[in-house]
Amino acid sequence: MAAVIGALLPERAIVVDEALTSGVGLMELTSGAPLHDWLSLTGGAIGDGLPMALGAAVACPDRPVIGIQADGSAMYTISALWSYAREQLDITTIVCDNGSYAILQHELERVGAASDGQRAGQLLDLGGPGLDFVALATGMGVPATRATTAEELADQLRRALAAPGPHLIDAVLRR
């Protein structure tokens, strides 16, 4: 995912990074891309990626915004997609879909609480029912696709960046 984004990042893009645990390599693999700005979490909270991308697109309507968004934290502020569609903002969101609140799992492990039983583990799993980000985005007026390979992601990202308005790509990542 990081290599695809680095290869296709347009000049003057604003990258909003809330990839969290899925963001390994993003900084390194986008460092050679055309000049761009990078916005990310300041630490301690999750869920600000979608509204941060909204703010960036409103502040700089002449620049493409690419949001790289973890699936669990997207659910905190998923309603931002409706505003993307309503305002026809040039935001391409890539959802890092690993089916879990992986960042919270890591934090539990760091404090030694990861083995507190089956119920605790279920609270960090986004399955049962699984989230359908394509349906969620489409239901709020944002065109959406699903990528399960790097090639699909590259093709879908090229198309999204070439068309005006909001787009969402559900990048299904291996667990």
UniProtKB/TrEMBL annotation:
Belongs to the TPP enzyme family. This is Thiamine pyrophosphate-dependent enzyme. It comes from the Bacteria. InterPro entries: THDP-binding (IPR029061), TPP_enz (IPR045229), TPP_enzyme_TPP-bd (IPR011766). It comes from Blastococcus brunescens. Gene3D superfamilies: 3.40.50.970. Residues 38-170 form the Thiamine pyrophosphate enzyme TPP-binding domain.
